[in-house]
Amino acid sequence: MHIKMGDFMSCIKWLLLKLYKIRFSISRKVIIKTIKVMEGGEIYSTTLRYLYSKYHGIEIGLYSYGGCFNINNIPRGTVIGRYCSFARDVFIFNADHPKSFVTTHPFIYNVNLNVVKEEPIKRTQLSIGHDVWIGQNVIITSKVNSIGTGAIIGAGSVVTHNVPPYAIVAGVPAKVISYRFEKNVIENLLNSNWWENDVSYIRENKESLKNVCTFLGD
User: Fold this and answer.
1) Helix, strand or coil, per DSSP, at residue 36
2) pTM for this structure?
3) Direct distance between the N- and C-terminal alpha carbons of the chain, in angstroms, rounded to an integer
4) Average pLDDT over residues 95-123
5) Alpha carbon distance 158, 136 (integer Å)
6) Helical spans, DSSP H, in 20-123
7) CA of 122: how far to CAs of 90, 97, 119, in Å?
8) How buried is residue 92: exposed, middle or buried, by Cβ count under 10 Å (0-12/13-18/19+)?
9) Which of 5, 77, 105, 205 is at 20 to 30 A from 15, Cα to Cα?
10) From residue 30, how far is each of 7, 37, 69, 142 by CA, in Å?
């Protein structure tokens, strides 16, 4: 009896999904690497996105890549849009040590350390738009809950406030140094929702996507 290659790959993928339930970091790393090979890398993999959503509480839009897949640096509850570019070392924090408590030690607020049963601190959830570029060693603090579509965050920045769409921010703390386009262009780009298309759209429109005026028909 001959087994079709597609059926065989589906069986392998099913097995990997079952094995990922086992909380063993080395085996999970092997599973992730295997899935990347099977599905053409993290940019394209829908299976990786399923695993990160189900087991780590991280939502990653299609075609986003890089440090957004680092579960040690990206906290549960983070939502990342499509076509985002992350440097490998991007750090997102969703809470601070409590300043008003007698101690700032995590024993007093981290339920995983088996001292307290409920977390007395508030955790934020960061929403990152589409087509966001975040540079190397960027730190995003717990005060931030929104980074707009099209934003660029310069390498080494410490982001302490929400970032508007298509803003370019940099520094410590990060500040808006400019915008990628004029206000009316930004509005038109946001209304275009081009990121909802798949990669075939990019291939077909790669020339117009290089020029914002051509793309918007100006």
Assistant:
1) helix
2) 0.89
3) 60
4) 90
5) 11
6) 25-38, 46-56
7) 22, 10, 8
8) buried
9) 77
10) 22, 11, 14, 31
Residue 4 has pLDDT above 60, yes or no: no
Q: What percent of the chain has pLDDT over 70?
A: 95
Beta bridge partners of 79: 59, 127
Q: Identify the three-state secondary structure at position 190.
A: helix
Is there a contact between 112 and 63 (Cβ–Cβ < 8 Å)?
Answer: no
3-state secondary structure of 59: strand
- C-beta of residue 39 within 8 angstroms of C-beta of residue 47: yes
Q: Token digits for 181? A: 């386009």
Contact 145, 157 (CB under 8 A): no
Residue 106 identity (one-letter amino acid): P
Q: Given the structure tokens 């409920």, which residue do they identify? A: 118
Active-site position among 97, 105, 130, 161: 97
Amino acid at 2: H
Tokens of 89: 């070392």
Does residue 2 carry a catalytic annotation? Answer: no
Residue keyed to tokens 């990060």: 174
Signed CA dihedral, 109, 112, 118, 123: sign only: positive
The pLDDT assigned to 3 comes to 46
C-alpha 31: how far from its chain's center?
20
